[in-house]
Structure formats: C-alpha cells, structure tokens
Design a protein that fits this description.
Layout: H1 11-28, H2 34-48, H3 51-63, H4 68-73, H5 85-98, H6 109-118, H7 121-144
Helix pairs in contact: 1-7, 2-3, 2-5, 2-7, 5-6, 5-7
Pfam family, one: CMD
Protein name: AhpD family alkylhydroperoxidase
GO molecular function: peroxiredoxin activity
Amino acid sequence: MEPRFNLFANEIGAKILKRIYNVSTAIEQSSLPKATQHLVMIRASQINGCGFCLDAHTKDATADGESAVRLNLVAVWRETTVFTEAEQAALAITEEGTRLADAHLGVSDETWDQVRKHYDDDQISGLISLIAMINAANRINVITRNQGGSYEPGMFSSMSS
C-alpha cells in the first residue's frame, strides 16, 4: 500500500501540519503526566487503526522509559493490573471521546467523574485537547495511507515554531 498524498510536500498541508505539531507541543508541555499522554495517543491510534501514529507513539513512549508490559497491554487495559486509576480514567475518556459516533451520549458522566477525580483543570484541558489532536492526526494519516514502521523518535522536532 503506497501513501496517497504527502501533506509535507504541499505548502498548505505543511502549514497545517506545523500548526498541529505546535498544538501538540503545548499539550506535551502541560502538567498532564507524560506517561498518560503516551497511553492516550497509543489507545486512540489503536482504535482508529493508524499505523503511523501507533509506530510513533509506542517508540516515543519506549524512548521515555515506558515498559513493554504496559505498552503491550494498552489495548486491553480494563483486563490488567498495570495502570493506575488515573490512567484508567484517561484511557476511558480517550475511548469514549474517540468513539463519539458509537454512543449517542458521547462521554459518560461516570467517565467524566473519574477524570475530574484524578486530574486538575489544567490537566483536563491537556487531556481533552490531546484526545482531539491525536484523533485529527490519526485521520490525516489513515486518509493519506501514511504507513507505520519508519518513525524515529524526535524526527519532527524541527517543525516547532
């Protein structure tokens, strides 16, 4: 399967990707724990079938010291003992926020209450924005058929500013 379109090679596409990257950098610098950020991006990418993002975020998580056990169990997080209650709340809102079309109520009150219990307002701002941005990135990469396998941690760092 060949990529359909290279947004980086298009002037408008490159501008848009740079802005998406800069939003992602702001989220990364928030007080939302880095491990939680990785888990959220991995879980949304699994749900959306985004090979490129899954490749990137598992490699970034590994580079930041995340364990193979936790990375291998993200897809079945409810059936494990390796995630904190706070991480479970973040994974639940990630799933519900990613699968909006599957539930007419969107994010449940129960999930929202768990998120409120574990995260402050700044962290919730980062979490909500992260879920929105990773879903946007997943859709861009799935639509253009940008495949996983070639990502190297830090390869987009020159895009900032």
